[in-house]
Structures are given as C-alpha cells and as structure tokens.
C-alpha cells in the first residue's frame, strides 16, 4: 500500500500512464491493425479515402470513448456502493442495479422505440432506481437495519428477475432481437460518437460530485451517532451518494449494456494500492476502471479474429474468480 502523499501521487501518475497505453492499444489493435503513423494521421490529417483513418475515426474512437466513460463510471459506482453498504461484495452488477437499468432500457427500446443512448438513459435511471429500492427493502432485517447477507441475496434475486424479464421481451420482439441483444451481453462496439458525446457531461458531473463528498465518505464507516456528532449530515451524504450510483450505473448501461464485475473488482484493487481515503480512492478507481475495460475490450477483439467476444463476457471471466475469493474472505464478517 502507498502510504505517503508523494507515493500516492506517483502511483496516480502511474495509473494515468497505464490508461494512456490502454487508450493507444484500443485505437490501434483489432481485426485491422492500425500503424502508429496512420493512427496519428487520422486525427491531425484526416483522409476520408483511407480505410485506416476511417476505421479509427468512425468506429474505434467512439468505442474507446465509450469504454473509457463506462469503465470509470462503473468503478466509481462500485466504490460508492461498498462504502454506503459497508459490504465488500457490493457493486452495481451484484446488487441488481445494472440489471434493473438494462430491463428498463429494453422496455424503452421495445415499447417506446427509443434508440440512442441519450434517449434510453432516462429509462436506465428509472430501472436502476427501482432495483436499488427493491434491494434496499429486501435486504432489511427486522430491528437491525440492512443485513449484508440479505442484501447480496436480494441483489442476486433482483438481477435474475430483471434479466429473465428482459430475455422474455427479447423473445417477444423478434424484429429487434439482434439490435437489443447486446444489452444482455454488454458491448462497447458499434457506438456512434454523436450518440455518446451527449452523455459524457453526465459522467463528468457525477465524478466531480463524488470527489466533492470524498471527505464525508471517509467517515461513513463510523457509527451514525458518531458521524452526526462530528457534524456530518448522514442522510444527505447517503442520498447524494446513492443518487450518484444510480446516475453512473444507469448511464453506463444505456451506453454499453450489462457489463458486470468492473464495479466489484476495481475498488478492491484501488484500496489495496492507495488505501481507504476516498480523496485518492475515487480518482484511482476511475483510472483503473477505464484502463480495465479498455484492456478487456482490446483483448476481446484479438481472441478469435475476425469475430469479437462481447466485453461483458471478458469482464465476467475475470471477475467471477475474484468474486468467489472475496465471498470466502467476507464470510466471517457478513
């Protein structure tokens, strides 16, 4: 663990460098390999007649931007959820937030003919909030508040319920089956930059608000009476943090579908390196989350070319063993 501010600052710079390498790899590698000169030229001297320039500008740049935003958003949402619930297994994917958002997105696309992420994001917010409320009430234990075990079980049940509903809608809507299927698998391919850009300010504002309440989040592990004695407005902080989880997870699902385990894996990696101070933890989660999803998407293109594996499958392959490891570690405290 990095303990001093200088060590953490240097570690943050290292995370930025890794993110830049992941960005370069995401733009360069795929079924069509892009030489570095063509990659640079596609931005400084764009030639519409060049296939390599066209691939970078029309497909990979939007794909990379989507992975960058979604990875950072899911990682921050996971860190906030683990802090709020005091549960090391909490994440938007495990507790049903992503599944709820995904189901409402599929409903919006099926019944309201919504197509672009900017149109679908409001449906995603509604679904994420619905799932969050369901898990909150199902996770309550009479007289003792929220139970970590009941919360995880409730999240698994809510996830299964919403995924089953979404699959049922897909079966009934055969005309749009292929266009909607990616929300179940999770994918950042085929994104239109013009549709992605309007959602980027939502991510930026949510991340800034999360950083703003970082000092208050450092106190959330204390007893409620102690926090109030220290002058912390506990209810307001929890409400704002919960709203940020809904916004970040919902926007991520509207852009890329059901991508799991990023919100679970990244906060644990960041804590292992930078500790529990949210002033360092949250920006580190954003950097590592973006790097992880970019790397997973790049690898997904290279495993069985020219076919691609959905990035949601790649994150599941990485996250499932870690989830089982964390579950074994946490069983003594849950």
UniProtKB/TrEMBL annotation:
Any one Gene Ontology BP term: siderophore-iron import into cell
GO molecular function terms listed in the Swiss-Prot or TrEMBL record: transmembrane transporter activity
CC annotations in GO: plasma membrane
Location(s) in or outside the cell: Cell membrane
Main location per the UniProt record: membrane
SUPFAM superfamilies: ABC transporter involved in vitamin B12 uptake, BtuC
InterPro entries: ABC_BtuC-like, ABC_transptr_permease_BtuC
Keywords associated with the record: Cell membrane, Membrane, Transmembrane, Transmembrane helix, Transport
Transmembrane stretches, start-end: 61-81, 93-114, 120-139, 151-173, 193-218, 239-266, 278-296, 308-327
Coiled coil: none
Pfam families given in the database record: FecCD (PF01032)
The keyword Transmembrane helix belongs to this UniProt entry's keyword annotation: yes
Membrane topology classification: Multi-pass membrane protein
Family: Belongs to the binding-protein-dependent transport system permease family. FecCD subfamily.
Name of the molecule in the record: Iron ABC transporter permease
Protein species of origin: Hydrocarboniclastica marina
């Amino acid at each position: 663990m990095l303990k001093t501010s200088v060590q953490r600052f240097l570690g943050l710079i290292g995370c930025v460098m890794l993110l830049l390498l992941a960005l370069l790899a995401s733009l360069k590698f795929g079924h069509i390999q892009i030489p570095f000169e063509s990659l640079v030229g596609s931005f400084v001297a764009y030639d519409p007649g060049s296939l390599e320039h066209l691939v970078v500008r029309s497909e990979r740049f939007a794909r990379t931007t989507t992975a960058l935003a979604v990875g950072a958003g899911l990682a921050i949402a996971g860190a906030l959820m683990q802090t709020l619930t005091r549960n090391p297994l909490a994440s938007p994917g495990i507790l049903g937030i992503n599944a709820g958002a995904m189901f409402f997105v599929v409903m919006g696309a099926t019944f309201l003919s919504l197509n672009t992420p900017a149109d679908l994001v409001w449906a995603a917010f509604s679904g994420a909030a619905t799932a969050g409320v369901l898990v909150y009430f199902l996770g309550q234990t009479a007289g003792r508040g929220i139970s970590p075990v009941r919360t995880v079980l409730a999240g698994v049940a809510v996830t299964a319920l919403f995924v089953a509903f979404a699959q049922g809608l897909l079966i009934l809507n055969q005309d749009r089956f292929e266009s909607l299927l990616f929300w179940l698998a999770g994918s950042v391919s085929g994104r239109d930059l013009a549709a992605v850009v309007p959602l980027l300010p939502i991510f930026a504002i949510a991340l800034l608000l999360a950083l703003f309440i970082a000092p208050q989040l450092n106190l959330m592990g204390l007893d409620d009476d102690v926090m109030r004695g220290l002058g912390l407005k506990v209810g307001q902080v929890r409400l704002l943090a919960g709203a940020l989880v809904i916004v970040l997870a919902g926007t991520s699902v509207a852009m890329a579908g059901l991508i799991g385990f990023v919100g679970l894996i990244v906060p644990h990696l960041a804590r292992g390196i930078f500790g529990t101070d949210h002033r360092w933890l949250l920006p580190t989660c954003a950097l590592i989350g973006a790097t992880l999803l970019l790397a997973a998407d790049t690898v997904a293109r290279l495993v069985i070319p020219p076919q691609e594996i959905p990035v949601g499958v790649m994150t599941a392959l990485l996250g499932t063993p870690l989830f089982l490891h964390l579950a074994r570690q946490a069983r003594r405290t849950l």
